[in-house]
Structure formats: structure tokens, C-alpha cells
Amino acid sequence: MIFKMSDSEESLITMPVLQKRPKLSLTIHNDGSGDEMDDISSTGSTILDDSTSRSETPLSGGRRFGRGKYKGKKVKLQYRCTNFIREDHKQPIFGVQMYPQYHSDDPMIFAAVGHTRATIYECLEGGKIKLLQCYNDPCPDESFYCCAWTFNEDTGEPLLAVAGLRGIIRIISTTTQQCLKEFIGHGNAVNELKYHPKDPNMLLSVSKDHTMRLWNVKTDTLVAKFGGVDGHRDEVLSADFNIQGTKIISCGMDHSLKVWRTDTPELLGAMRESYTYNSKNLVRQFPTLCQNFPQFSTRDIHRNYVDCVRWLGQFILSKSCENCIICWKSGSIDDKEVWKPNESKVSVIHCFDYKDCDIWYMRFSLDFHQKMMALGNQVGRIYLWDLDVDDPAQSKCTILSHSKCFTAIRQTCFSDDGSILLAVSDDGSIWRWDRQKN
User: Fold this and answer.
1) Could you tell me the residue ranges of all domains in the chain?
2) What are the boundaries of the signal sequence (predicted)?
């Protein structure tokens, strides 16, 4: 089913579903008997080489890493392609996100965004992918780049935030099948959305306008804006909260990486106040907090656009257009205290090398336990690293490939249990890889 979203940008109101539903067609390639997937290649190898649009333009110590442990015997990562589908718009799909499984029997739901559409699917047994809902933006100039899931604290219903080229953030209810709210404030495209790990109402948006903004989606308030004097000097491309939600790491086209504190008394106070603010009863605007100074900043890690960044415990994983993901930390290797104020030194812990990925806006992902990392390249291959090691230099890389997948893979994501790996591509295709039991 397709639901067309309202183009109203005047106020944040509930928007009814329109009756007119444009046609959606999908080409589905299911595993079936297995004959159609005989040309799958899933090989393991360690990469030894040291090696302005969204490809150039928007279209073209002793402790283990991670935050959890898998049960059972440790084995080499093995995934098999069980299905792929292709959306009929044949435009790049830039983002894919799994809805968190809060209970073991929850269905595996994911959203994929690209062109003017945000589409929701369910992963079924046997490698099947079921289309649930599709939302089509009324503006033909829109191109969705990113999405993020949260839930309504009162009802428990899933909520999907989507944004892209036009800089408008839309909040979609999959239960009522409506676009509930729109947030307008960024002066340009939104490149990434992230919800606070401890507060499901706090949404961080990352923009081409050189800033990041923190929104309370429950009370429709702009809580804080990150940028300004010592902020990014060019388009901000990616950001991530640490597990505790006390810090944000951001990166962008200015080659820099910046750490921002979210546990300062001023910001915590603004977050609390945003819950009591009522825009309908109060004439004054909410006093948005401006954060102009990051806790830490460096340009010593990358020499090109930094288009994806993630926390790995107290360490950082970041990538540029240099065919490697770098694991690093502030200070020296032996420093036990990290992200100290006025720290200027950085230490590179390890470089995860790969090939054929020298275009930008190609984003890697970690599984929930931070034991696996996946990145697609511009020729359709997926690099999969096992991070469940004492030393990252010991991490083994598995390359996943399929003869029918040969365009750039823009983003990957794992299911919470790591049993499914999804990838979205420039030709409008979505690929499902299932982990094989040993």
C-alpha cells in the first residue's frame, strides 16, 4: 500500500491519508528451490593491500571490542544471499534501517528510503521479503537520504523519521499510516538522522547547512543546535551518539571529526524543559540552546570528505574516500582517560582496508553487539569484518558478492541478532543476506 504524504509546511499537524495511491511494482527474486542463486559468491579473505554529488553527486587493552557477547562457539562469518528485490523507480536507495526487536518474537521490520519514497518491509522465513507500506512524497524534487526508527512511549507504536534533499524531517506512524509531523528548520539537505539511545523522543539531524539539530519530536521543539564558531566549516555528513548518550561524534566535508558533549548542565536542562513547553499555549518560542564549541576536534585522521562515523566503545570508527575505515582514539595509545578537554593528539589503532570505494556517501554499519561491521563498495561487493577479537589487527574480512549486484551499495544494516544483513544499492535494489549456521 502506498500513502501520499501531505506537502504542508505551514504547521505540524496530523495529516490524513490521501485516497490517491500511485502504483508500486517490485521485481522480487526469491531463493525458491535455490537454482536462481547458484551464482552467489561468499568468500573469506583478509585484505592485505594498503591501499560534488553523492558519488561525486547525489545520484551518481585486553578487553574485547563491542558491548555484548554472542553465545556459542565462535566461527567464521558466513552469509548467503537469499533474496533481492528492485523498486520500480530504479533510483538510488540511500538508506536502510531495521526496527529494533524489543522482544524475541517481534517481526523483523525494516525501512528503505530513496527517490521520493520511504518503503517498509518485513523479513519472513525462507529468505522472503514482504512489502508492508510505502509512503510517497508529493514533491517530485524530494530525494530521501536517511531514516531512523523510534516508538511512541504512550502507545508503543513504531515511528519512522525520514529526511533528505529538501531538509524537511517527516515523522511517519506505521500504525495509523499517516505522516504525523514535519520539522522544518535546516537550510539545506539532511544527511543523517539518529535517535538518542536513552530518550526515544530526542532526534538528532545532520545537515548540509553545516549544523546539527536536536529535536524533541513529542513536543515539537528544537532543543539545541550544534555548530557556529568552532563547528563544521562545510556540509556535515554523519553523526552518532555513544551508548550512554553523553557524547556525539560528527564528521563532514571539511575533513574534520568533532566530539560534542550532551551531558552538560545546560543541555540536560534544555532537554528537560522541552518536555514542559507547549507551543500552543505559549506565545514565546522555545529557547533553543546553541552549542558552538565541541569538546574535541581533529583533522588529522582523514584527508578527504569524512562521510560515516560510529562509536565503538570509547573508540571511533570513521571512513573517508580513501578505501579504509580507521579505528582511532584521542590522546596516546596508553592513555586510559579519553576525550580529555583541550586534547589535540590522536592515535590510530587500526585501519580496515577494502577496495573500490572511493566515492562518498557510502555508509558502513555495526551489529547491535558491535561484533560485526559491514560496508558495501561501488561495484556491489560487501566487506564484512569480525570484530569479536582481542586485537583489531586480527580481524578477518569476508567478502560477499553476487553476479547480479554490480552497482554501488550505499548502506548496510544488521538485524539485532545478526542473522540478517541488508544492503541497498544505486539501482533501486535491496539485498538480503542470511547468516549460515555452522
Assistant:
1) 2-6+27-435
2) none
pLDDT digit string (tens) for 95-136? 999 999 888 788 999 999 999 999 999 999 999 999 999 999
Could you give the CA distance from residue 85 to residue 27 in angstroms, rounded to a whole number?
Answer: 5
Q: Residue 364: CA atoms inside 13 Å, Cβ hemisphere, count? A: 31
Torsion (CA) 175, 432, 427, 381 in degrees, nearest 10:
140
Write the pLDDT tens digit of every residue in 360-409. 999 999 999 999 999 999 999 999 999 998 888 888 999 999 999 999 99
Strands 289-291, 296-298: pairing is: unpaired
**132-171 burial code (b ≥16 CB/10 A, e <16):** ebbbbbeeeebbbbbbbbbbbeeeeebbbbbbbbbbbbbb
- The CATH class for the domain spanning 2-6+27-435 reads mainly beta
Specify the pTM: 0.85
Confidence category of residue 60, pLDDT binned at 50, 70, 90: very low
Task: Strands of 124-233 (E only): list them.
Answer: 129-136, 144-151, 158-164, 169-173, 178-183, 190-195, 202-207, 212-216, 221-226
Phi–psi pair at 113, nearest 5 degrees: -125, 135
Grid cell of 423 as nine digits: 544492503
Cβ proximity of 400 and 394 under 8 Å:
no
Yes or no: say if 212 and 236 are a contact pair by the CB < 8 Å rule: yes
* Whole-number Å distance between alpha carbons of 387 and 172: 34
Where does 246-320 show beta strands of DSSP type E? 247-252, 257-261, 289-291, 296-298, 306-312, 315-320
Nearest-5° Cα angle at 272, 266 to 277:
115
C-alpha 267/C-alpha 217 separation (Å) is 16
